[in-house]
Every structure is written in structure tokens, then in C-alpha cells.
Amino acid sequence: MSDTLDLAQIDAGLFQTLMEKVSEFGSTGDGGVDRPVLTDAHKAARDWFISELTARGYTVVIDDIGNLFGRIDLAGPDAPLVMLGSHLDSQPKGGRFDGAYGVMAALAAVESWRASAAAQGIAPKCNYVVADWMNEEGARFQPSLLGSSVWAGLVERDWALERRDRDGKSVGEELVRTGFNGTGVMPKPDLYLEIHIEGDSKMEQAGARIAPYARHWGAYKVRIEVTGEQNHTGPTPMEERKDAVLGAAYIIAKVRELAETAADTLYTSVARVDISPNSPNIVPGKAILFAELRSPEQAMLDWSLGELRKALPGLAAQAQVSAEIAAIDERPAGRFDPRLVKLTEQAADAFGYPRIELDTVGGHDAVAVNAILPAIVIAVPSVNGVIHRNDEYTSPEDLAAGCDVFVDIVRRVDQAGGDLDKAVGANA
């Protein structure tokens, strides 16, 4: 039998084949993909992925919020269960690596460890699940991380099924239409691993190839409704206009001002505004703002939300409109499991890959999963820090390096029988 401390590496050919194929679904022809959740392109990608899982002997499970799982038992029914994954949905006209890299790497990592163990005569000690979470992006249905949050018990399923897109279609209706309204149940695993592109330039600047995320920033996703009075943009006197978009503009400026007041500890945005009736010849009667407040510290999040609440009446009054907070979706700040951070560092060091420890400002499904079990996100560099657009890019070499670390973490955890303390200690 071979030494179980030998490094396990990714099957580069398998990973490349999977990555190239998944990038075809919703391809925009300019390097990106347009594959929002539960669209036809997203369905096609998921249908293809099911065929890949089935062909390799995985049992496919689709749960009642549309999460897709592929399970394979390599060590018997009572063995520890390790879950790896990410998401196949994309932003509108987004990039081909965000999410999909994590799902393809997950399948390739399990398959690579499976083959490596067989070649070395090593008996696996864990079973595995590859996860494709429903609606990570939150582009079509809000909030983001919807499928993983329902699975983790953080959000009520019935509430999630009623989330609607701009056209009034609900999550529940679209799950039925696309055939992903499942009834399966995926039990809680012992740990969860996710790999992702960084979407920032910190790794590039530091010359790092691997970055375990130690902390995840929290967020308030705030929906603000501004109500004015619909009227004609021509004859209506300026002093009589109750322009909802003007009120929205004052609020948007305030949201940005909050970030400038708390530089580097608060990120804010208003990246979507729904205007009604949205005609160039009508003073808008309604504007709905989707604001975000992000920080690594709960105290800063609470301060920023409080400041926004206090400012709303005065800002609305400037435009002779009213404004109210209609909904708040909260994502608490927190830390990923330090043992998984350490395992990532050990694996990176074993390969000689330069590393850096980072926070993640963006949300990932691992953030929701982390609420109930040990989890982590591992990052690889993004060229120029680009994410959520067509020129999002990570070099093949860095993708492969991340996959190598990913599969070797699987090996270390597997041979420790799913015991994270033992896995870390064995390689300390």
C-alpha cells in the first residue's frame, strides 16, 4: 500500500472537459454566460450535470427547494459524509467561472480522489455529496443564497417558494416549469467545502495562488419603496412634482455617503431600481430600491442601518415623496471553521503554492451552510479582480492549482475519517 501522505492531485483532463462543457450553457459568445436561475439555460446546464453524475454512479437527489445533489457512497452507509459544491446559476451576462468552477471542481475532486485511492489500494473512509445550490446569485429572485439557506433552516421554504421575479413568476412556479421541484432529502453532512474565484485583486497583488477565507462579511439587503405621484413631465409645474426617482436619488447618495463615512469597514450599493411606470414622459410615481450594506462587524451593520432609517424621512421630504423600508434580509457576519483554514494552508504549502488568508465580502452558499456545520470557501486569483461580467478570468494554471489543493484536502479529511482535528494534527 502506498504512503497515505502522498499528495492527491486533480485529474486535469476531467476538470478541463467539465469546465469547457458547462461554459457552453448560456454562453454569450464573448467569454461570459447568461444563465440566471431557473431559466432555460440554467435548466439545460443542470440536466447535463445530472447526466454526468448518473454516468459516474452518483445517486441524484433534488430537494423541495430545487437544490441538486449527487451522492456517492465509497465507504459504506454509516461513514462520515463530506459535501463539496457551489452553484450553476449566473448573473445576467455574467462570467463563466463564478459558481460553475466550484461545482466542476467538486465533481472532479471526488472523482480524482476515488481514482487515486483505488490506484494506491487505499480504502476511502468517507462518503461524498456534490452540491449545486439553487439561486445563489439572487439576481432573478431575492434574496441570494436562497436554496442553501432553506436547506440550512435559515429561511422558511414556503416563503422562499413565493419569491417573485420582475415578471411576477415565483420560485415555486419556475421549479415546476423546469422540472426541479423535487421531494428528495439530503441529510446534514459532517463538513462542507467550496472553491471559488476571488473576484478581487488582493491575491494578484500579493502573488498568492491559494486563499482560505477566514471570515465572511455580514450584510443587510434592504428594499426601500419610494412613493410619489404619477404625472406628466411636460405641463406639471416643477414645484408640484412628487418625483419618486428624485427621492430615490437622494437616498442612493446617502447610501454611498455611509460608506465614505466608514471607509474600508462598510461597503454599500444600490444596484437595482425598479421604476413605475418607467416612461420618459411620466413623472415616476414609484421607485423600489435594492440597497446593500456590507461589513465584517455586526456593530457597523447595525449603525449603518440605523443611520439610513433616520435619514429616510428627510430625504423623501426633499422630493415631496414618502419612503419606507419594505423588507430587510439579514446575513450575519462570521468566521469559517479554523481547522478547514489550517487544512487549506497545509495543502497549499505541500504543493508549494503561495497563499494568503482573506475575508470574503461577497456571499457564498458556504456562508449559509456554515451556520450549522463546519464549512469553508477557498479562493483562487481573478485576473484584474474582475467578477460578474463576461471578461471574468482565472488562468488554467491557477484553476488547476486550486483543484489540486481541493482534492488534497479531500484526501486529508478522508484518511482522518472525517475528523477535522485529526486531519489537522496529522499534517501539523
From TrEMBL:
SUPFAM superfamilies linked: Bacterial exopeptidase dimerisation domain, Zn-dependent exopeptidases
Q: What is its cofactor?
A: Zn(2+)
What are this entry's molecular-function GO terms? hydrolase activity, acting on carbon-nitrogen (but not peptide) bonds, in linear amidines; metal ion binding
Q: Which residues bind Zn(2+) 2?
A: 98, 137, 388
> What Gene3D superfamilies is this protein classified in?
3.30.70.360, Zn peptidases (3.40.630.10)
Know the name of this protein? Zn-dependent hydrolase
Please give the family membership noted in the entry: Belongs to the peptidase M20 family.
**Cofactor binding annotation:** Binds 2 Zn(2+) ions per subunit.
* Naturally occurring in which organism (per UniProt): Paenirhodobacter ferrireducens
PANTHER family, per database record: ALLANTOATE AMIDOHYDROLASE, ALLANTOATE DEIMINASE-RELATED
Q: Where does Zn(2+) 1 bind?
A: 87, 98, 196
Known Pfam families for this protein? Answer: Peptidase_M20
Q: Which InterPro entries match?
A: Amidase_Cbmase (IPR010158), Bact_exopeptidase_dim_dom (IPR036264), Peptidase_M20 (IPR002933)
Alphabetical keyword list? Hydrolase, Metal-binding, Zinc
Q: What is the lineage of its organism?
A: Bacteria, Pseudomonadati, Pseudomonadota, Alphaproteobacteria, Rhodobacterales
